[in-house]
Specification:
The complex is a heterodimer. Helices cover 0% and strands 47% of the residues of chain A. Chain A is mainly beta. In chain A, strands 2, 4, 5, 6, 9, 10 and 11 form a 7-stranded mixed sheet that branches. A 4-stranded antiparallel sheet of chain A has the order 1-3-8-7, with no helix packed on it. By secondary structure, chain B is mainly β. Classes of the chains: A mainly beta, B mainly beta. At the A-B interface, β5, β9 and β10 of A face β4, β5 and β9 of B.
Chain lengths: 116, 112
């Protein structure tokens, strides 16, 4: 699982409800990321965080929010403002601290969110 | 505007033959490239990467080639195995930038 745990695997919500997706890492890495994958599309960056209490918007941040209160946790909230929330959500961690210039990201197993 | 393009949505290869997956990029600032393999309903798995200071990197059956002048990279899988059937994503990053930019993926089918 690349040291990343995502739960649950499948999630169903009614339209108009906020929902929070969990992402936990156990390798003490600083950088964490949230991506979204839609059918026939590549992965698109939603938010990322390089350090605790700091995060940056990615390409498609509208309708999403995140927090980074602890190094090991980076939850993603899909709000009712997200127009098309049904997708496969992937959390990733960055390289171990001290690595040379390598941007390899390692992904968790993903959460399939379906909004009914 | 797609900065990383995988123009072939799918590729079919027979077991034992070579699979060649292609990727083109437009941003000349990209200096690190990666290939990921993804099965349905699972997270992508890192396969192999290459820095722009190299033109080839090899890891077992997987070799990535980088042609900077053409802004093109390719992943060669030799020999191909049925277990290689998956979606392959090409990704790139630029120095000083955190995010990876992904292509849309190529679905590889290896038949026995």
């Amino acid at each position: 699982d690349g040291g990343i745990t995502q739960s649950p695997k499948y999630l169903f919500r009614k339209e108009g409800q906020n929902v929070t997706l969990s992402c936990e890492q156990n390798l003490n890495h600083d950088a964490m990321y949230w991506y979204r994958q839609d059918p026939g599309q590549g992965l698109r960056l939603i938010y990322y965080s390089q350090i605790v209490n700091d995060f940056q918007k990615g390409d498609i941040a509208e309708g999403y929010s995140v927090s980074r209160e602890k190094k090991e946790s980076f939850p993603l909230t899909v709000t009712s403002a997200q127009k098309n929330p049904t997708a496969f959500y992937l959390c990733a961690r960055g390289p171990p601290g001290g690595d040379s210039r390598t941007d390899t990201q390692y992904f968790g197993p993903g959460t399939r969110l379906t909004v009914l | 505007d797609q900065q990383v393009k995988q123009n072939s949505p799918s590729l079919s290869v027979q077991e034992g033959r070579i699979s060649i997956l292609n990727c083109d990029y437009t941003n000349s600032m990209f200096d690190y490239f990666l290939w990921y393999k993804k099965y349905p309903a699972e997270g992508p798995t890192f396969l192999i990467s290459i820095s722009s200071i190299k033109d080839k990197n090899e890891d077992g059956r997987f070799t990535v080639f980088l042609n900077k002048s053409a802004k093109h990279l390719s992943l060669h899988i030799v020999p191909s195995q049925p277990g290689d059937s998956a979606v392959y994503f090409c990704a790139a990053s630029a120095r000083g930038k955190t995010a990876l930019i992904f292509g849309k993926g190529t679905t590889l089918s290896v038949s026995s």
